[in-house]
Amino acid sequence: MATVLAFDVYGTLIDTHGVVAELEQRLAGQDRSDLAPEFSRRWRDKQLEYSFRRGLMGAYVDFSHCTREALEFTDRALQTRFSETDKEHLMGVYARLPAFPDASAALDRLAELGIRCVAFSNGSREAVEGLLEQAGIRERFETVVSVEEIKRFKPDPAVYAHLRYRLESDPGDTWLISSNPFDVIGARHAGLHAAWVRRTPDAPFDPWGIEPDITVPDLDALAERLS
Predict the structure, then answer these.
(1) Whole-angstrom distance between the N-terminal and C-terminal Cα of the chain?
(2) Does the keyword Hydrolase apply (predicted)?
(3) Fewer CB atoms < 10 Å away: N or C end of the chain?
(4) 161-215 pLDDT per residue, tens
């Protein structure tokens, strides 16, 4: 089915809500620990929004900069009054987010099938290398392709063209694997194949008339589909 699988990192391989437990601890002193899931969701949503806006403006910055600004915004919006020390600590936690439980075994199975796998992210190469290494899955990937190499953000078509350039692959032989609908649509628009990892059963897909080639509930199901 595929010559090479390009895996999105944040939200697909790495659980961006792995910061919730730390948020609960930080908010316990305010008796607001129940706010942690909402804080995590809004932080992630704003992080993506800032990358989209900067992409449209042609004002590229490292993805971690978007993450830090999104943290600041969410703190203000929810009036959580985190100290600068708290914010720096939370940014450190974000740099050590865990992999989803299904990632390691699914990647091993794909390797056994002889399928090329690469990591493909809005994050910097250094940040992604660190994330994958601490999560214990870096060795499963042939390489890391980061948008910082062309200073654009997904879903800019130039990013997917750069992926193919780096991999020396044809569009029809290149598959994006992502839990993010905007990424799947971006890849399909750019002529790539794409699989949507629908990690939340009731998650809707954007009604743009551009659909994923396949939809799976998790990476285990992806490996099963390809075997």
Answers:
(1) 10
(2) yes
(3) C
(4) 999 999 999 888 999 999 999 999 999 999 999 999 999 999 999 999 999 999 9
